[in-house]
Amino acid sequence: MNTDNRYPVTASLFMLKEIKHRQEQVNRGYQLLKRKAEALRMRGRQAASELASTQAILGHILREAYISLAAIKFTNGESNALVLENIGQAQIRVQRIPENISGVATVSLQALEEVGAWDSMCYAGLGAGGHRTSEAKKAFREAVRTLVKFASLRNTCILLDESIRSTLRKVNGIEKVIMPKLRNTETYILMEMDEREREEFHRLKMVKAKKVKNQARAVQLRQSASFGGAGETGEGDEAEPDLPPQCEPIECLTSILACSSLSTTTESGDFKPVCYPHNWDDDDLLF
């Protein structure tokens, strides 16, 4: 098996349990990340749809606001200098509300209107075009609220998009890299343990065969030894044949010397010693 696609571990029962425990943890994390990605996608689709509708409404509101501003300019003339001179306390403020969407920290923006704030332009347009001025003020306030909502939804969509990408990268990394490595590592450990078990079984089989062979050889040797002892005992019980009487060693030597002193010559001139029969055993020569 390719060592690049598995973790470098030793094939043991402890590592097998550890790898299985890691697989359980990885599977749990994989399922949680998939659920997180699905929740982020759902929330992102919802935010994207709201963003699209808000963008369409924002264009219409801004168009109506600038049309009302043009009507004021047509009725009262240029009033930008008067507005800039009378700028005071802000009547609309933006509040940041932190939100947690499936573990992703986002910020929601909400427009708050200060009721107690003094309006410096409250008396603008009393001489002429007051109705147009109030309509323009309402239109631009609505445009500000819509812009704040649009910014909040856009920020949420950007954060959710980044979170979805990072979560999907983690999910793909676990699915394509970590989980195959863990499975290959578990397969490698099981193969090595099976191979060791087969080797141990073969070794025990060979040891048992050798032991049986040695036992059979020992039994055979004992049987042959018992049969040999029984044969020798039977031969000893038989009557020994009559042997000629043996002479003493000194007498045998004397007879040998007497035989060596006698000699005859054949007709062809070859020397041929003559030895008379003697009664002695070959074992007596050792003495």
Automatic annotation (TrEMBL):
Transferase recorded as keyword: no
GO terms of molecular function: proton-transporting ATPase activity, rotational mechanism
Domain of life: Eukaryota
Entry keywords, A to Z: Ion transport, Transport
Disordered: annotated span: 223-245
Its job: Subunit of the V1 complex of vacuolar(H+)-ATPase (V-ATPase), a multisubunit enzyme composed of a peripheral complex (V1) that hydrolyzes ATP and a membrane integral complex (V0) that translocates protons. V-ATPase is responsible for acidifying and maintaining the pH of intracellular compartments and in some cell types, is targeted to the plasma membrane, where it is responsible for acidifying the extracellular environment.
Family: Belongs to the V-ATPase D subunit family.
Name the record gives this protein: Vacuolar ATP synthase subunit D
